[in-house]
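Q: How do we represent a protein-ligand complex in a form that can be generated token by token?
A: Start from the inputs.
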Amino acid sequence: MQQCTDRRMNNFKDATNCLHAGYEPKKGEPRMLPIIQSTTFKYDDSDQMGRLFDLEEDGYFYSRLANPTADAVAAKICALEGGVAAMLTSSGQAANFFAMFNICNAGDHIVSAATIYGGTSNLLTVTMKKMGIDVTLVDPDASYEELCKAMRPNTKLVFGETISNPSLVVLDIEKFAKLAHDHGVPLIVDNTFATPINCKPFQFGADIVTHSTTKYMDGHAAQVGGAIVDSGNFDWMAHGDKFPGMTTPDESYHGIVYAEKFGKAGYITKATAQLMRDLGSTPAPMNAFLLNMGLESLPLRMAAHCSNALKVAQYLKNNEHVAWISYPGLEGDKYYETAQKYMPKGTCGVVVFGLKGGRETCIKFMDNLKLGSIVTHVADAKTCVLHPASHTHRQLNDEQLVEAGVSPDLIRFSVGIEDAGDIIADIEQALAIATAE
Ligand code: PLP
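Then emit the structure tokens for the protein with pyridoxal-5'-phosphate bound:
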């Protein structure tokens, strides 16, 4: 767990924070973020250790709960999102699960945009359902009034993705924040595709942000990781009846009331103290180090991804073999205006499209790419491609696929930061083979 208390960083811009936030070496200390590859931390007497266990004192005692390397990187992401506290997790899946389970119990209910990553959809509709937590998936484009109908007295949070994977629906964050707040619950936004470089959901009313840091934040496909950041804006005490875990004593920590004792850091402290303690899912220090390396160049890479993706989208839009294309950074796209409002600097590097020959032509096209590789990955420095209906979303039935905005011919083309001309030439040659009579 890391509270973003590094005052030095508060006035810096993203590019500076990407390099400097979270770790400030003192005299004679390593310039590079050290990898603290240690499960344990030594103390002088048992009383000191006891105070750590009681959460009476700040400090490290066991890396399943918190580790200095991971915390430094969490503080960097916290600064980028403009939050008050953050934590890293071992994957994006763990981040979304912890973010929700931290404030939900059996018998509770979640409202989520239907257009979300297949793994998150599975987490909600299968695994969390087994735990007694119900979900209603809503059309993110529905009117505020329609969305209100999904809310129940036991709803504990609203969830959505800034730019959905893979349908590239841009979430109207303000509409979803109003929905959540009018019903006394927080809005959790998965900001993986936009990254804080292109969108800062807290500025539009989101309360908690999650990330699969596996994607652009890392950028080099080197580690699997996740992050949770709290804005500190949601008033748990004002909605104490809904969130007893935050506002009533935790007997497993000698009666601590998280929202009272830790104030704005209460939510992240609870997730660390209870969920990391009981479920693990902590990132390896080496993975946190690799993530930190990726973060250093994030602003440069995001600008290059967006510029290349726009060129690819423009090329595809004018190609006779392309049945349809969706890219929120492309003028005329259904979500262009919403993207301009929430992400004026750019959206992401992912472009989705279908080919006129349907599913078979799409697969033939992918199989013939030479530069773009077929991998279970997205948002990487290297161009990669995937067919969600056959891969990431294959567990969904046809109806669920439509609900998630995934048509059977949808190709998810993750534009990398190679030379844009080379990427387009690769698409051109693969299209020529896929569409040859
Ligand atoms: N959220 C989004 C938007 C994703 O795209 C993914 C993975 O693709 C996840 C969460 C899950 O992240 P991870 O694969 O790091 O567990």
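The chain is about 35% helix and 15% strand. The first strand starts at residue 2 and ends at 3.
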